[in-house]
Design goal:
47% helix, mainly alpha
């Protein structure tokens, strides 16, 4: 990728955050509750990415999503660690593609623990497909001005000689 001197790239210190070092099975096992818990931060980040069309302008929103995810898994660890570990282990070892349908019993125990100890119910089926309006405090970005190209080819003058087509027109039925 070629960049010019006018492109501002963030410093490494701006980009450095604590990473979420969890396996795919662990993230998949906690995904429904995590999505509900961090919905506000994630929607803010996605709205910023779509509106700004530049990931450099959404670094703080991305950091908020990562911080929310870390906070969620810390709460799960303090409240429902055994139940979550059993569920994540089942998701990891029951199939090659981390399918959830083989682990409904351990999921029920985990969901019950999350509801009782963290008051976080499992979202209903189709919850993340529902349309919602996200309210943000971030101002809407100004629309980019339409590009003006000063060296555009000028149109032909009106008195320019228009010769007939050399091999005739393919719209021969319209000439009558």
């Amino acid at each position: 990728m070629v960049l010019t001197a006018a492109v501002h790239l963030p410093e490494e210190s701006e980009l450095t955050v604590q990473e979420v070092n969890l396996s795919a099975a662990t993230l998949r096992a906690g995904s429904f509750h995590l999505g509900k818990y961090c919905e506000q931060a994630n929607n803010e980040f996605m709205l910023c990415r779509i509106e700004e069309n530049d990931p450099r302008k959404c670094i703080n929103e991305g950091k908020a999503v990562t911080a929310c995810t870390l906070n969620f898994f810390r709460k799960v660890k303090s409240a429902c660690l055994n139940e979550f570990n059993q569920y994540a282990n089942c998701v990891d070892k029951s199939s090659g593609d981390y399918a959830l349908q083989h682990c409904r019993n351990t999921q029920a125990v985990y969901d019950k623990c999350m509801l009782e100890k963290l008051q976080l119910p499992r979202p209903d089926f189709g919850y993340f497909c529902e349309a919602r309006v996200h309210d943000t405090k971030r101002p809407k970005p100004l629309p980019e001005p339409k590009a003006v190209y000063p060296d555009a080819t000028p149109a032909l003058p009106e008195d320019y000689e228009k010769k007939p087509a050399r091999f005739g027109s393919r719209f021969y039925w319209m000439t009558e």
